[in-house]
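Protein folding task:
====================
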Amino acid sequence: MSMVKWSPMKELEEMRRDMERVFDQIFEPKGRRRWWPSAAEKGVIVPSVDMYDRQNEIVLKAELPGVEKDGIDLTITKDTLILKGEMKKDEEVSEENYYSRERAFGTFARTIALPADVDSEKARATFKNGVLEIVLPKREEAKPKEIKVNIG
């Protein structure tokens, strides 16, 4: 029997490959995946959202493909936004006719904590090409104040 020099780097490399294999299985398309159901399969749809600060207002953009403008329900308080609606199927296709199915359908709801207090009465929203843009003006007390200090 010959002696083999132990190499911690070799073991780390094997562990990295094993972890990649696990993540590849988790994120495989539905048709090839054997376990770990997606959020849509569990009945949970979470729209993708971007939120950013634009000086005196907060802007939120949500991707809502296939949703009709009238099917969106928004509730805005001074520090929370609740987005609800339903993503409907275009046509009825039986399960056995699918090769793959990655799009999600059904009702969705998302509650988003806002980073500053907003004036919900002055909020405005537009919906274009499946993207909902909500502009939320900040309350006066939430706006940053600039104070000049003279140093002598």
The longest helix spans residues 8-26. Residues 49-142 form a domain with the Immunoglobulin-like fold (CATH 2.60.40.790).
